[in-house]
Amino acid sequence: MEGPSAARGWLRDSGGDAESDRDIKTHFRVCRFIMETECDSNSGVKLGMRSVPVATACVLYHRFFQRVSVHAYEPYLVAMSCVYLAGKVEEQHTRTRDIINVSHRYFNSGSAPLECDKEFWDLRDSVVQCELLILRQLNFQVSFEHPHKYLLHYLLSVKSLVNRHGWSRTPVAETSWALLRDCYHGAMCIRHIPQHIAIATLHLALNSYGVELPVGEKEWWKVLCVGVTKAHIDAVVSDLLQLYDMEAKCL
Questions:
Q1: What angle do CA 91, 116, 53 make, to 5 degrees?
Q2: Which regions are flagged for Basic and acidic residues bias (predicted)?
C-alpha cells in the first residue's frame, strides 16, 4: 500500500531492499526530521514539543516499521502521524495544521504556510488515517517507558559523588542528555531497556571527560542500576557509535 498521493508532492521517498543500509539511513533521516520539527530555526516556526513526546514519536515510528516494510508506506507521513499521536499520548496536544505547516517548511525552506485548500485537507486526512493505521499495527499499545527519568536519577546520584568544582568544569549532564537524544535516531532505542540506555549514556559521558568516581566494593553503575553488566553497557555504546557512523554517511 502506497502512502496517500496528497503527501507525495513534497515528502521525500525511499527505496532499496528491506533491512538494507539505505533503509537504515532513511530511518535515521526521518527521526532527525521528527526532532528538528520540534523547533525549526530556519522558519522561526516550532511545535515546542518536550523531549519525552519527541522520544515517544520516535519509538512509535520505530515500532511501526518493525512490523511493516519501509517501502509499503511513506516514512515521512508516518513520522508526521507519530508526532500527532505522541502529542496525545504524552498530553501535549499538537494541531495537525501546525504539524503540516512546520513539516512543509522543513522541506520547502522559506515558503509560505499551505493554504487551506484541497491539498491541505487531503494531507490532513492522510495524517489522521495514518494515525489509525499506526494504532492498529501497534495493537493500541502506545505508552512507553523512556530512559529520561532514570538518567535524571543517575545524574543526581553521580553528582553527589563528584567534587562540586570538578563537576561544574565538565558538561557531563549536558553530554548525557545529548547522547540519550541521539539514541532515538535508530532502533537501538527499542532494542535496549530504558535503564541500560540511561546508565550507558552516563557512563560514556563520564569516560569522555575523564571524570573518575570514588572506588567502592561495586562499580558505580552496578550500585545505581541493579542487574546491569558491562556487556549491557558496551552493547548500548556500540549501537550508539554505529549511529554516529550512520550520521556521517547521511551528510
A1: 20
A2: 10-20
pTM of the model: 0.87
Half-sphere exposure of residue 194: CA atoms within 13 angstroms, side-chain side? 15
Q: Which residues pair with 46 in a beta bridge?
A: 39
The per-residue pLDDT string of the chain (251 residues; one tens digit each, 9 = 90 and over) reads 333 334 444 444 433 344 578 888 999 999 999 998 775 444 344 677 889 999 999 999 999 999 999 999 999 999 999 999 999 999 998 899 999 988 888 888 777 777 888 888 999 999 999 999 999 999 999 999 999 999 999 999 999 888 877 788 899 999 999 999 999 999 999 999 999 999 999 999 999 999 888 887 889 999 999 999 999 999 999 999 999 987 777 76
Residue 170, all three cell numbers: 565538565
**What are the CA-CA distances from residue 140 to residues 64, 95, 131, 135, 136 (Å)?**
11, 21, 11, 5, 6
| CATH class of domain segment(s) 5-137 | mainly alpha
Which single residue is written with the C-alpha cell 499551505?
A: 114
User: Cα–Cα–Cα angle for 247, 148, 225, nearest 5°?
Assistant: 105
Q: Which fold has domain 148-250?
A: Cyclin A; domain 1 (1.10.472)
* CA dihedral sign, ordered 147, 152, 153, 159: positive
Domain positions in the chain are: 5-137, 148-250
Look at residues 176, 166, 174, 169 and name the one whose alpha carbon lies nearest to residue 197: 176
48: exposed, middle or buried (Cβ count in 10 Å: 0-12, 13-18, 19+): exposed
Query: 148: Cβ–Cβ under 8 A, 6 or more apart, which residues?
Result: 51, 52, 55, 180, 198
